[in-house]
Amino acid sequence: MVDTPGRTCERVEQVLEQQIAQVRTPEAAEAVVRHAEALTAGDTAEERARTTAATPRSAASAVELAAQTAPPAERVAAVLTTTAAEAAAETPEAPAVQEAALAALGSGSAPPGTERGRELLREAVLRRMNPLDHLDARLFLLVNSAPHPSWLDAAVDNVTVITRGGWVWAIGVAIAGVLGTREARRALALLLPSLLSTTAVVEYPVKSYFRRRRPFIDVVQALVVGRRPGGWSFPSGHTASSFTAALVLSTLWPRLSPLFFGLASCVGVSRVYAGAHYPSDVSFGALFGISLAALVRRLVGRWLDRAGRRRRRWRIR
Protein backbone atom coordinates (compact mmCIF):
# COMPACT_ATOMS: atom_id res chain seq x y z
CA MET A 1 0.00 0.00 0.00
CA VAL A 2 1.37 3.41 -1.05
CA ASP A 3 1.08 6.21 1.49
CA THR A 4 -0.66 9.43 0.55
CA PRO A 5 1.51 12.58 0.80
CA GLY A 6 -0.34 13.52 3.98
CA ARG A 7 0.32 10.14 5.56
CA THR A 8 4.00 10.23 4.54
CA CYS A 9 4.38 13.67 6.10
CA GLU A 10 2.66 12.52 9.30
CA ARG A 11 4.82 9.40 9.68
CA VAL A 12 8.11 11.20 9.02
CA GLU A 13 7.24 14.13 11.27
CA GLN A 14 6.30 11.77 14.11
CA VAL A 15 9.62 9.92 13.93
CA LEU A 16 11.57 13.16 13.74
CA GLU A 17 9.82 14.66 16.74
CA GLN A 18 10.35 11.50 18.80
CA GLN A 19 14.04 11.34 18.00
CA ILE A 20 14.78 15.04 18.38
CA ALA A 21 13.09 15.01 21.77
CA GLN A 22 15.78 12.53 22.87
CA VAL A 23 18.38 15.31 22.58
CA ARG A 24 18.26 16.78 26.06
CA THR A 25 21.74 18.19 26.68
CA PRO A 26 24.37 20.14 24.72
CA GLU A 27 26.66 17.11 24.96
CA ALA A 28 24.03 14.86 23.38
CA ALA A 29 23.51 17.40 20.59
CA GLU A 30 27.26 17.52 19.93
CA ALA A 31 27.32 13.74 19.62
CA VAL A 32 24.41 13.77 17.14
CA VAL A 33 26.17 16.35 14.95
CA ARG A 34 29.41 14.35 15.01
CA HIS A 35 27.60 11.19 13.95
CA ALA A 36 25.67 13.08 11.23
CA GLU A 37 28.91 14.47 9.82
CA ALA A 38 30.42 11.00 9.78
CA LEU A 39 27.38 9.52 8.02
CA THR A 40 27.44 12.15 5.25
CA ALA A 41 31.20 12.60 4.92
CA GLY A 42 32.26 13.11 1.30
CA ASP A 43 28.74 12.87 -0.13
CA THR A 44 27.10 15.49 -2.32
CA ALA A 45 23.37 16.04 -2.37
CA GLU A 46 23.26 14.54 -5.84
CA GLU A 47 25.00 11.32 -4.76
CA ARG A 48 22.81 10.80 -1.72
CA ALA A 49 19.65 11.66 -3.66
CA ARG A 50 20.53 9.21 -6.44
CA THR A 51 21.15 6.39 -3.96
CA THR A 52 17.93 7.17 -2.09
CA ALA A 53 15.80 7.33 -5.24
CA ALA A 54 17.06 3.87 -6.26
CA THR A 55 15.90 2.31 -2.96
CA PRO A 56 12.55 0.51 -3.36
CA ARG A 57 11.13 1.22 0.10
CA SER A 58 8.98 4.27 0.79
CA ALA A 59 10.42 7.42 2.33
CA ALA A 60 8.48 7.01 5.57
CA SER A 61 9.58 3.38 5.87
CA ALA A 62 13.21 4.38 5.33
CA VAL A 63 13.04 6.97 8.11
CA GLU A 64 11.27 4.55 10.46
CA LEU A 65 13.81 1.83 9.66
CA ALA A 66 16.66 4.19 10.54
CA ALA A 67 15.03 4.83 13.91
CA GLN A 68 14.60 1.10 14.57
CA THR A 69 17.89 -0.36 13.36
CA ALA A 70 20.59 2.25 13.92
CA PRO A 71 22.78 1.82 17.04
CA PRO A 72 21.31 3.81 19.94
CA ALA A 73 24.22 6.26 19.96
CA GLU A 74 23.71 7.02 16.27
CA ARG A 75 19.92 6.79 16.04
CA VAL A 76 19.06 10.49 15.98
CA ALA A 77 21.81 11.22 13.44
CA ALA A 78 20.67 8.34 11.25
CA VAL A 79 17.08 9.62 11.25
CA LEU A 80 18.17 13.17 10.43
CA THR A 81 20.49 12.17 7.57
CA THR A 82 17.96 9.71 6.16
CA THR A 83 15.30 12.42 6.20
CA ALA A 84 17.63 14.89 4.49
CA ALA A 85 18.40 12.32 1.78
CA GLU A 86 14.71 11.52 1.23
CA ALA A 87 13.87 15.22 1.00
CA ALA A 88 16.60 15.74 -1.62
CA ALA A 89 15.70 12.72 -3.77
CA GLU A 90 13.83 13.20 -7.05
CA THR A 91 10.85 11.11 -5.94
CA PRO A 92 7.10 11.85 -5.61
CA GLU A 93 7.46 11.58 -1.82
CA ALA A 94 10.21 14.21 -1.48
CA PRO A 95 7.86 17.23 -1.03
CA ALA A 96 6.00 15.44 1.79
CA VAL A 97 9.30 14.60 3.53
CA GLN A 98 10.41 18.20 3.12
CA GLU A 99 7.17 19.39 4.69
CA ALA A 100 7.64 17.00 7.61
CA ALA A 101 11.24 18.14 8.13
CA LEU A 102 10.17 21.78 8.16
CA ALA A 103 7.42 21.06 10.67
CA ALA A 104 9.73 19.16 13.03
CA LEU A 105 12.97 21.12 12.53
CA GLY A 106 11.82 24.58 11.52
CA SER A 107 10.96 27.56 13.66
CA GLY A 108 7.26 26.77 14.09
CA SER A 109 5.54 25.40 17.15
CA ALA A 110 6.43 21.89 18.34
CA PRO A 111 6.14 19.80 21.50
CA PRO A 112 8.41 21.25 24.23
CA GLY A 113 10.89 18.35 24.07
CA THR A 114 11.22 18.61 20.30
CA GLU A 115 11.57 22.39 20.42
CA ARG A 116 14.40 22.16 22.95
CA GLY A 117 16.11 19.35 21.05
CA ARG A 118 16.13 21.18 17.72
CA GLU A 119 17.51 24.31 19.37
CA LEU A 120 20.29 22.28 20.98
CA LEU A 121 21.08 20.69 17.61
CA ARG A 122 21.16 24.06 15.85
CA GLU A 123 23.53 25.47 18.44
CA ALA A 124 25.71 22.37 18.28
CA VAL A 125 26.07 22.74 14.51
CA LEU A 126 27.01 26.40 14.89
CA ARG A 127 29.50 25.77 17.70
CA ARG A 128 31.47 23.37 15.53
CA MET A 129 32.04 26.05 12.91
CA ASN A 130 34.91 28.50 12.86
CA PRO A 131 33.94 32.17 13.50
CA LEU A 132 33.51 33.09 9.83
CA ASP A 133 31.46 29.97 9.04
CA HIS A 134 29.43 30.60 12.19
CA LEU A 135 28.55 34.10 10.97
CA ASP A 136 27.81 32.72 7.51
CA ALA A 137 25.40 30.14 8.94
CA ARG A 138 23.70 32.71 11.17
CA LEU A 139 23.08 34.96 8.16
CA PHE A 140 21.87 31.96 6.18
CA LEU A 141 19.35 31.02 8.86
CA LEU A 142 18.21 34.64 9.15
CA VAL A 143 17.30 34.75 5.45
CA ASN A 144 16.18 31.15 5.09
CA SER A 145 13.91 31.18 8.13
CA ALA A 146 11.91 34.15 6.82
CA PRO A 147 8.26 33.49 5.88
CA HIS A 148 7.91 31.30 2.79
CA PRO A 149 4.54 32.03 1.14
CA SER A 150 3.74 29.56 -1.62
CA TRP A 151 3.69 32.23 -4.36
CA LEU A 152 7.21 33.36 -3.44
CA ASP A 153 8.47 29.77 -3.24
CA ALA A 154 7.10 29.18 -6.75
CA ALA A 155 8.72 32.40 -8.01
CA VAL A 156 12.10 31.45 -6.54
CA ASP A 157 11.84 27.97 -8.01
CA ASN A 158 11.21 29.51 -11.45
CA VAL A 159 14.15 31.89 -11.01
CA THR A 160 16.36 28.89 -10.21
CA VAL A 161 15.35 27.17 -13.44
CA ILE A 162 15.53 30.10 -15.86
CA THR A 163 18.80 31.57 -14.56
CA ARG A 164 20.82 28.34 -14.61
CA GLY A 165 23.96 28.97 -16.67
CA GLY A 166 22.94 32.57 -17.31
CA TRP A 167 21.37 31.76 -20.69
CA VAL A 168 18.27 33.84 -19.97
CA TRP A 169 20.50 36.93 -20.18
CA ALA A 170 21.75 35.91 -23.60
CA ILE A 171 18.18 35.26 -24.77
CA GLY A 172 17.19 38.73 -23.58
CA VAL A 173 20.04 40.34 -25.52
CA ALA A 174 19.16 38.33 -28.63
CA ILE A 175 15.56 39.57 -28.40
CA ALA A 176 16.84 43.14 -27.96
CA GLY A 177 18.87 42.69 -31.14
CA VAL A 178 15.83 41.52 -33.08
CA LEU A 179 14.00 44.63 -31.87
CA GLY A 180 16.79 46.81 -33.22
CA THR A 181 18.64 47.76 -30.04
CA ARG A 182 22.05 49.28 -30.76
CA GLU A 183 25.12 47.33 -29.61
CA ALA A 184 23.07 44.15 -29.13
CA ARG A 185 25.24 42.13 -31.55
CA ARG A 186 28.43 43.19 -29.78
CA ALA A 187 26.81 42.50 -26.40
CA LEU A 188 25.93 38.97 -27.47
CA ALA A 189 29.42 38.40 -28.88
CA LEU A 190 30.91 39.42 -25.51
CA LEU A 191 28.31 37.76 -23.32
CA LEU A 192 28.30 34.21 -24.71
CA PRO A 193 32.04 33.46 -24.19
CA SER A 194 31.90 35.17 -20.80
CA LEU A 195 29.01 32.96 -19.64
CA LEU A 196 30.65 29.82 -21.02
CA SER A 197 33.94 30.61 -19.27
CA THR A 198 32.32 31.45 -15.94
CA THR A 199 30.15 28.33 -15.93
CA ALA A 200 33.06 26.09 -16.92
CA VAL A 201 35.40 27.49 -14.25
CA VAL A 202 32.97 27.81 -11.34
CA GLU A 203 30.91 24.64 -11.79
CA TYR A 204 33.84 22.27 -12.21
CA PRO A 205 37.37 23.05 -10.96
CA VAL A 206 36.40 25.64 -8.33
CA LYS A 207 33.51 23.73 -6.75
CA SER A 208 35.40 20.45 -6.94
CA TYR A 209 38.38 22.01 -5.17
CA PHE A 210 36.44 23.51 -2.23
CA ARG A 211 33.84 20.69 -1.97
CA ARG A 212 31.61 22.62 0.42
CA ARG A 213 28.35 20.84 1.22
CA ARG A 214 24.96 22.42 0.68
CA PRO A 215 23.27 24.18 3.63
CA PHE A 216 20.38 21.73 3.67
CA ILE A 217 22.90 19.00 4.53
CA ASP A 218 25.03 21.03 6.93
CA VAL A 219 22.11 22.74 8.67
CA VAL A 220 19.36 20.15 8.62
CA GLN A 221 16.55 22.52 9.58
CA ALA A 222 17.01 24.62 6.43
CA LEU A 223 14.01 24.93 4.17
CA VAL A 224 14.76 23.92 0.59
CA VAL A 225 12.49 25.47 -2.01
CA GLY A 226 11.74 23.70 -5.26
CA ARG A 227 14.40 21.61 -6.94
CA ARG A 228 17.21 20.40 -4.71
CA PRO A 229 20.53 21.11 -6.47
CA GLY A 230 23.26 18.51 -6.75
CA GLY A 231 26.98 19.07 -6.53
CA TRP A 232 28.88 21.31 -4.17
CA SER A 233 27.90 24.65 -2.71
CA PHE A 234 30.87 27.06 -3.02
CA PRO A 235 30.61 29.32 -4.95
CA SER A 236 27.11 29.90 -6.32
CA GLY A 237 27.05 29.16 -10.05
CA HIS A 238 23.71 30.94 -10.58
CA THR A 239 25.09 34.08 -8.94
CA ALA A 240 28.39 33.92 -10.83
CA SER A 241 26.72 33.72 -14.24
CA SER A 242 24.24 36.48 -13.34
CA PHE A 243 26.99 38.88 -12.26
CA THR A 244 29.01 37.96 -15.34
CA ALA A 245 26.07 39.04 -17.47
CA ALA A 246 25.47 42.18 -15.38
CA LEU A 247 29.07 43.36 -15.82
CA VAL A 248 29.22 42.67 -19.56
CA LEU A 249 25.90 44.39 -20.27
CA SER A 250 26.73 47.34 -18.01
CA THR A 251 29.82 48.16 -20.07
CA LEU A 252 27.66 48.59 -23.17
CA TRP A 253 24.56 50.12 -21.55
CA PRO A 254 25.94 51.88 -18.44
CA ARG A 255 22.71 53.73 -17.72
CA LEU A 256 21.02 50.38 -17.12
CA SER A 257 23.74 49.04 -14.82
CA PRO A 258 21.62 49.49 -11.64
CA LEU A 259 18.94 47.32 -13.26
CA PHE A 260 21.42 44.63 -14.36
CA PHE A 261 23.19 44.41 -11.01
CA GLY A 262 19.89 44.64 -9.15
CA LEU A 263 18.56 41.62 -11.04
CA ALA A 264 21.81 39.71 -10.43
CA SER A 265 21.59 40.51 -6.72
CA CYS A 266 18.01 39.20 -6.61
CA VAL A 267 19.25 35.92 -8.09
CA GLY A 268 21.91 35.71 -5.38
CA VAL A 269 19.45 36.38 -2.54
CA SER A 270 17.06 33.81 -4.00
CA ARG A 271 19.75 31.13 -3.68
CA VAL A 272 19.98 31.73 0.09
CA TYR A 273 16.19 31.97 0.45
CA ALA A 274 15.90 28.64 -1.38
CA GLY A 275 18.31 26.96 1.05
CA ALA A 276 20.77 26.13 -1.72
CA HIS A 277 23.68 28.39 -0.72
CA TYR A 278 25.27 30.21 2.17
CA PRO A 279 25.65 34.01 1.88
CA SER A 280 29.41 33.59 1.34
CA ASP A 281 28.73 31.23 -1.58
CA VAL A 282 26.70 34.01 -3.17
CA SER A 283 29.25 36.74 -2.37
CA PHE A 284 32.14 34.80 -3.85
CA GLY A 285 29.98 33.73 -6.77
CA ALA A 286 29.46 37.40 -7.57
CA LEU A 287 33.20 38.05 -7.21
CA PHE A 288 34.12 35.15 -9.49
CA GLY A 289 31.50 36.22 -12.03
CA ILE A 290 32.69 39.82 -12.17
CA SER A 291 36.39 38.88 -12.31
CA LEU A 292 36.00 36.28 -15.05
CA ALA A 293 33.69 38.54 -17.04
CA ALA A 294 36.19 41.41 -16.89
CA LEU A 295 38.98 39.15 -18.15
CA VAL A 296 37.04 37.43 -20.93
CA ARG A 297 35.34 40.65 -22.03
CA ARG A 298 38.71 42.34 -22.42
CA LEU A 299 40.17 39.49 -24.46
CA VAL A 300 37.12 39.04 -26.68
CA GLY A 301 36.67 42.81 -27.01
CA ARG A 302 40.20 43.20 -28.36
CA TRP A 303 39.61 40.40 -30.86
CA LEU A 304 36.35 42.01 -32.01
CA ASP A 305 38.02 45.39 -32.38
CA ARG A 306 40.84 43.92 -34.49
CA ALA A 307 38.34 42.03 -36.63
CA GLY A 308 36.36 45.23 -37.12
CA ARG A 309 39.46 47.16 -38.21
CA ARG A 310 40.34 44.43 -40.72
CA ARG A 311 36.83 44.55 -42.20
CA ARG A 312 37.03 48.33 -42.58
CA ARG A 313 40.40 48.08 -44.34
CA TRP A 314 38.99 45.53 -46.80
CA ARG A 315 36.07 47.85 -47.54
CA ILE A 316 38.43 50.75 -48.27
CA ARG A 317 40.41 48.63 -50.71
Task: Describe the protein.
The chain is mainly alpha-helical and 317 residues long. Helices cover 74% and strands 0% of the residues. Residues 217-227 have low confidence and may be disordered.
Short overview:
With 317 residues, the chain is mainly α.
Beta-strand content bin? under 5%
Secondary structure category: mainly alpha
Biggest beta sheet summary: none
What's the β-strand tally?
0
Helix content: over 70%
CATH architecture of the largest domain: Up-down Bundle
Per CATH, what is the topology of the largest domain? Vanadium-containing Chloroperoxidase, domain 1
Taking all Cα atoms into account, the compactness measure Rg is: 23 Å
How many structural domains does the protein architecture include? 2
Cα shape:
elongated
Arithmetic mean of pLDDT: 79
CATH class of the largest domain: Mainly Alpha
Keywords:
15 helices, Vanadium-containing Chloroperoxidase, domain 1, mainly alpha, 317 residues
List the SSEs and their pairings.
Elements: H1 5-20, H2 26-39, H3 45-53, H4 59-69, H5 75-88, H6 94-105, H7 112-127, H8 131-144, H9 150-162, H10 167-178, H11 184-210, H12 215-218, H13 237-252, H14 257-273, H15 279-316
Helix pairs in contact: 1-4, 1-5, 1-6, 1-7, 2-5, 2-7, 3-5, 4-5, 5-6, 10-11, 11-13, 11-15, 13-14, 13-15, 14-15
